[in-house]
Amino acid sequence: MSSDTETTLTPVLSENWDRPDSFTLRGYRETGGYEALRKALTMEPDGLVDLVKASGLRGRGGAGFPTGMKWGFLPKDNPKPRYLVVNADESEPGTCKDIPLMLANPHVLLEGIAISAYAVKSSLAFIYVRGEVLHVIRRLKHAVAEAYNAGLLGKNIQGTGFDLDVVVHAGAGAYICGEETALLDSLEGYRGQPRLKPPFPAVAGLYASPTVVNNVESIASVPSIVTNGVEWFTAMGTEKSAGFGFFSLSGHVTNPGQYEAPLGITLRELLDMAGGIRAGHELKFWTPGGSSTPIFTDEHLDTPLDFESVGAAGSMLGTRALQIFDETTCVVRAVGRWIEFYAHESCGKCTPCREGNFWMVQVLERLENGAGTEADLDKLLDICDNLLGRAFCALGDGAASPVISSIQYFRQEYIDHVEQGGCPFDHRKSTVWGGEA
Amino acid sequence: MTQTNHAPADTEQRTVSLTIDGRELTVPEGTTIWQAAKEAGIEIPALCHDERYDPVGVCRMCVVDTGGRTFPASCIRPCESGMEVATSTPEVERSRAVLTELLLADQPPREEDPKQTTTADNELIEVADNYDIATIDDLFKGPGRGTDTSNPVIAVDHDSCILCDRCVRACDDVQGNDVIGRSGKGYSTRIAFDLNDPMGESSCVTCGECVSACPTGALTNKPINNIPIRPRSELDAVDTVCPYCGVGCALTYYVDRERGGISFAEGRNQPGNQGRLCVKGRYGWDYAASPQRLTAPLIRVDSSYPKGPLSADVKDEAQQSNGKRGRGRKPGGLVPYEEVLPHFREATWDEALDLVARRLGGIFAESGPEGIAGFGSAKCSNEEAYLFQKLIRTAFRTNNVDHCTRLCHASSVAALFEGVGSGAVSTTYGDITNADVAIITGSNATANHPVASSFFKQARRNGTKIIYVDPRSGTVADHADIFCQLKPGTDVALYNGIMHEVIRLGLVDRDFLASRTTNYEELARTVEAYPPELAAQITGVDADTIREIARLWGEANAGVIYWGMGISQHTTGTDNARCLIAMCSITGNVGRPGTGLHPLRGQNNVQGASDAGLIPMFYPNYQSAGDEKARVLFEEAWGTELNPEKGLTVTEIIKSILDGGVRGMYMLGENPFLSDPNINKVRKALSQLDFLVVQDIFLTETAEFADVILPASSYLEKDGTYTNTDRRVQRGRKVFDPPGDARVDWEIVQEIAQRLGLDWNYRSPQEVFDEMVPLMPDYANLSYDNLGSEGKLYPNPDPEHTDGTVVLFDDRFNTADGLAHLVPAEWLPGKELPSEEYPYVLNTGRLLEHWHTGSMTRRSFALDSIAPRAEAYVHPEDADELGLKDGELARVTSRRGEIVLNVKISHREARGNIFIPFHFREAAANLLTIDEIDPMGKIPEFKFCAVRIAPVADRVSTTVGGSAS
Question: Is 1.20.1440.230 the CATH classification of the domain at A331-429?
Answer without folding.
Answer: yes
